[in-house]
Design goal:
Radius of gyration: 26 Å
Number of domains: 3
CATH architecture of the largest domain: Beta Barrel
Distance between the termini: 58 Å
Helix content: 55-70%
Number of strands: 9
Order of helices and strands: EHHEHEEEHHEEEHEHHHHHHHHHH
CATH superfamily of the largest domain: Hypothetical Protein Pfu-838710-001
Largest sheet: 8 strands, antiparallel, barrel
CATH topology of the largest domain: Hypothetical Protein Pfu-838710-001
Structural class: alpha+beta
Number of helices: 16
Length: 510
């Protein structure tokens, strides 16, 4: 078995066309070579190979056909994957002798099938067709294969061939130091938006077959007491990087409310993770990442706000026909904010954030926090800190409401509103800490923290509703000269109900 180590990037067609003129390519690479490649991918049943973490392909090249099996990556970004590959004589079908070799020399045997059954059940499901322009780069004593692929993914749906464009750059280490790939990528990223991507060609073609966009990346599993700080940090950071890359791609490809919301969720969780890792990391690095995440949040926030506000207003638009101009105003504002967000997601700045975060994750995974006790201490300390902050915010919020004048639920006032907002943020942070670090807590506290998790989830939702409604009222008060009758009254009643639910949740957990 060989371990394929590569960085994979998604890039726009215009940037793919200018890659050959990049100074780093001119300085470190020789002349390029071009070849036309076509690949068919095979599956069993309804995706049994993919479910087991395998991709099986037959690729036709100018030098002959190659049969390749690849395993899933070691992390969410898939930088290191197992690869088994050899030349075969035919390109029309998989021959029995090659399948026997697959079962003998690769992990494919875990499926429990013999070669004859495998030959009978394997079927081609989708394909890729592209032109590869490649350079051999020699950098710092290492050799890197730079491959620019431009073409299409191909699949058949309802008896009709469908295609999707493919523009991908791969930096694969042939021999030498893996660090050289990162150095080359960073040099290229100074001038071009090379967006690190966890999505490989098989996954893109599979999404095309299903008529879907690339699939989201799941949340990392909760850490356990047997892990190390380095392993946990690497998992958190690499998963967040992969999630940002995929949600960013989905936002650019289509206008869907959920995508922007999930993009913001990842940003927010990443900022909380930096709070936990900060004492163990370079202050300069943490501050740089915090600044970049603030910038991304500032661009994504107005789009998400507009989505929430328009959904709220559409739910009550039957109250008055005068609602349509208000929706139009918010819709125009949203279009402008979304254009700004997409411009950022297409920029070299966003691409460098992904690249820097991925590299930082790898450094954590290999060099930081090797001791098992360090992770336990971080987990317990983080939960304790977030819990204490939440209790303080809770107490401040209770005092602001119970000590206020009649009508506090309608308009809590600036001070009480600020305290409720702080409680909402603390609820999010504590909830994430309990989800990710709960396995590190003493068993005697598990039941207590399970109830606390439910309470923070309830408060996050109810205070979030209240916060959205209050900001919508403020926005309409500033931007709309003549608000339709009764709209502010309805929004005020909804905000009051959300606030009362949140307060009830506080009291139930007291």
């Amino acid at each position: 078995m060989a371990v394929e180590r590569e960085l994979k990037f998604d890039l726009a067609e215009v940037d793919a066309a200018r890659l050959s003129m990049h100074p780093a390519i001119g300085m470190f690479a020789g002349s390029s070579a071009s070849s036309r490649l076509s690949t068919r991918y095979f599956e069993i049943g309804a995706g049994h190979l993919a479910a087991a973490g395998f991709a099986l392909r037959l690729r036709r090249t100018p030098a002959g056909c190659l049969l390749t099996l690849k395993s899933a990556g070691a992390d969410a970004l898939g930088h290191a994957r197992g690869e088994w590959e050899w030349g075969v004589s035919g390109d029309a079908a998989l021959e029995l002798k090659d399948l026997e070799r697959l079962l003998r020399e690769t992990p494919l045997g875990v499926l429990g099938l013999d070669a004859a059954t495998l030959q009978r059940e394997l079927r081609p499901v989708y394909a890729t067709e592209f032109v590869r322009q490649s350079w051999l780069v020699e950098l710092e004593g290492s050799r890197i294969d730079v491959a620019l692929d431009r073409g299409h993914c191909v699949a058949s749906r309802a008896g009709r061939e469908v295609r999707a464009p493919l523009h991908e750059l791969e930096l694969e280490l042939l021999d030498g130091d893996w660090h050289a790939c990162w150095e080359l990528a960073w040099a290229l990223a100074q001038d071009m938006p090379l967006r690190l991507s966890p999505v490989n060609k098989a996954q893109r073609a599979s999404a095309l077959l299903r008529g879907e966009r690339v699939a989201p990346v799941h949340e990392p599993p909760a850490v356990d007491a047997d892990g190390t700080l380095g392993e946990a940090a690497q998992r958190w950071l690499s998963t967040a990087t992969a999630q940002l890359a995929v949600w960013g791609e989905r936002i650019r490809a289509a206008d869907q409310v959920r995508d922007v919301h999930q993009f913001r969720v990842v940003l927010r969780r990443l900022r909380t993770t930096l709070r936990w890792l900060g004492p163990h990391a370079s202050p300069a690095a943490v501050e740089w990442f915090r600044g970049e995440l603030r910038w991304a949040m500032a661009l994504a926030g107005p789009v998400r706000d507009s989505d929430v506000w328009m959904t709220r207003l559409r739910a009550i638009r039957s109250v008055d026909v005068g609602m349509e101009p208000v929706l139009d105003l918010l819709g125009h504002q949203r279009q402008r904010h979304r254009a700004l967000l997409c411009s950022y997601l297409e920029s070299a700045r966003f691409a460098r954030l992904l690249l820097a975060m991925a590299r930082w994750a790898e450094v954590w995974g290999t060099a930081v926090g090797a001791g098992h006790g360090e992770l336990k201490r971080l987990g317990r300390r983080a939960v304790e800190v977030e819990h204490c902050a939440w209790v303080r915010a809770w107490e401040a919020s209770e005092a602001a409401l119970t000590g206020g004048a009649v009508g506090a639920f309608d308009d809590p006032g600036p001070e009480a509103s600020a305290r409720l907002h702080a409680l909402r943020i603390s609820s999010k942070r504590l909830r994430l800490a309990l989800e990710r670090l709960g396995g590190l807590l003493p068993p005697r506290k598990h039941a207590r923290y399970a109830r606390l998790h439910d309470a923070t989830e309830m408060m996050q939702a109810r205070l979030g509703d209240w916060h959205d409604l209050q900001r919508l009222r403020e926005q309409l008060g500033r931007d709309v000269e003549r608000l339709p009758p009764d709209i502010d009254v309805i929004l005020q009643k909804q905000a009051r109900a959300s606030l009362q639910d949140a307060r009830a949740a506080l009291r139930r957990d007291d």
